[in-house]
Write a structure and sequence with these properties.
By secondary structure, the chain is α+β, with helices and mostly antiparallel strands. Helices cover 39% and strands 26% of the residues. It contains 2 helices and 2 strands, in the order αββα. It has a two-stranded antiparallel ribbon. The chain has helices spanning 2-6, 43-61, and strands at residues 10-18, 21-27. Strand 1 (10-18) and strand 2 (21-27) form a beta hairpin.
């Protein structure tokens, strides 16, 4: 995962049972995501967004 992060990829979500096993979605954007505009209801969703946002910030700082 460090190789992907060094190339600008960040955690985008979990893919349960993806091809008979769990997987991680790694994504890369050419522009900054607009995290502030995402409206979520559940606290668990807000926690996941915070984690994704922090992971994205780590890729930008490198």
């Amino acid at each position: 995962m460090d190789i992907l992060r060094s190339r600008g990829y960040f955690f985008g979500g979990a893919m349960p049972r993806w091809f008979d096993g769990d997987g991680l979605l790694m994504q890369k954007f050419e522009c900054s995501p607009n995290f502030e505009s995402i409206a979520l209801f559940l606290d668990s969703s807000k926690e996941l967004l915070a984690f994704i946002w922090q992971d994205w910030e780590r890729t930008v700082e490198q």
